[in-house]
Specification:
With about 240 residues, this protein is α/β, with parallel strands linked by helices. The protein is built from seven helices and ten strands. The protein has one domain (about 1-235): Rossmann fold. It has helices at about 10-25, 40-55, 80-90, 110-120, 160-165, 185, 200-210, and strands at about 1-5, 30-35, 60-65, 65-70, 100, 125-130, 150-155, 175-180, 190-195, 230-235. The structure holds 2-amino-2-deoxy-6-O-phosphono-alpha-D-glucopyranose. 2-amino-2-deoxy-6-O-phosphono-alpha-D-glucopyranose binds next to helix 5.
Amino acid sequence: MKIIITKNYEEMSERAAGVILGVVKQNPKAVLGLATGTTPLGLYAKMISDRREKGTDYSQIRTVNLDEYKGLPKTHEQSYAYFMKKNLFDGLGITPEQTNIENGTAKDEEAECLRYDALLEELPRDIQLLGLGSNGHIAFNEPGTPFSSGTHVVELAESTVKDNARLFEDISEVPRKAYTMGIKQIMQAKKILILASGANKADAVYKMVKGEVTEQVPASILQLHPDCTLIADEAAAQKL
Ligand code: GLP
C-alpha cells in the first residue's frame, strides 16, 4: 500500500483530487467507483471547481457507488443517491443514466443484489474511492464480513449507526440495514484510493496498515491489493 500523509483535510482532498483527475484525464470513459460519507466531500468540491475552471469533461464517465441505505428512496435527503447528486453529480454535469447505485427500495432484496453483482461485472472500475469506518469497515462491510462477499444486505454495527447519526435529526431515524458492494468486488477495482481524516480514524488506519489481514478489520484486506493508495491527514495517521 502506498501511503501519503498530509498536514490536514484540505491537503488530503487536494492530493485525492489529483489522483482522480489523473484517471479521468487519461480515460474520459473511465468507470469511477465512488463513496459517500463526510471524508470525500472536500475532494468532490475540488472536482467541481476544477471542472468549472478547466472544463474537465465527464460526459462519458460512468459511476458505480458502494452502498445505499435499505428503505430510503433516491429522493430521500439522507439516501446516498441523493448525497451523490447533490454533492457531486450535479456539479459535474453527470446525468442519472451515467450513474449506478443499489436501489434502497427494491422489493426483492436478493434480486437487487444479483442485479448489482451483474452490473459490477459489466463495468470494471478504473478506480475505487473508499472512506474508512472508525471500526475498520469499508463501504458497509462491517467487521466479520467474509472477504469473499459480493453485494449483500447488512445489519449495521451499533458503532456505525452512532457514527452516522450526526447526519440525521435523531438516531432513531438512521436505517439499520443497508445494501453494500462486497469486499471481493472492492478488491476487483484496478486502482483503489482510500482516504482517512481525523483522530477518530487513527486506530482503524493503524490496524488497516500495520495489523494482520483479518476479516475482523475489513480494510486490512487492502494490504493485498496491487495498486492501493492511502491518503491520510496527520491526525488519522498519528499511530503509524
Ligand atoms: C459510512 C459509509 C462508508 C464511509 C464511512 C466513513 O458508513 N458507508 O462508505 O466510508 O461511513 O464515513 P465518514 O467519511 O463520514 O467518516
